[in-house]
Amino acid sequence: MLELPSRGYLEPQPLAKTHGIPVAILHLRSYHIRLLDLFIHFALHSAVSLGIPTSKAQPLKTQRRLWTVIKGPFVHKKTQENFVRLTHKRAIRLYDANPGVLEMYFAYLRAHALAGVGVRAIRWDRAPL
Questions:
Q1: Which of 7, 24, 73, 127 could form a disulfide linkage to 123, CB 3.0–4.6 angstroms apart?
Q2: Cα–Cα distance measured from residue 46 to residue 56, given in angstroms and rounded to the nearest whole number
Q3: Which family is annotated (predicted)?
Q4: Distance separating alpha carbons of residues 126 and 129, to the nearest angstrom
Q5: Comparing C-alpha atoms, which of 102, 101, 128 is closest to residue 24?
Q6: Is residue 87 a contact partner of residue 33, using CB atoms and an 8 Å limit?
Q7: Domain 20-123's class?
Q8: What is the tens place of the pLDDT at every residue in 27-53?
């Protein structure tokens, strides 16, 4: 008998947007791409579990930082070492969510945040009529 993998290993099944009204954007950034992918997988699964329709993770421009350090002073001025640091960024759009559910979702992400992954949420609140 072939066992199916747990639901956590598979990609989350996206929920259909009811009205298509964006309520928040989740910006994620990290120096480690595998850690970033792991947290995106977690964030998408938790959003689906709470009934929040989401977009897939959209890759944003990777920030590249270069700098040069002199290995030795005085005589060894020409021996230099180059370093590079890449900051990988992703964005997830959240749609059609109740403000209470959205607040619960952000609190859940804060409680289970991974060290090394920065999370910033931009949310839009609708004014009542």
A1: 24
A2: 13
A3: Belongs to the universal ribosomal protein uS10 family.
A4: 9
A5: 102
A6: no
A7: alpha beta
A8: 999 999 999 999 999 999 999 999 999
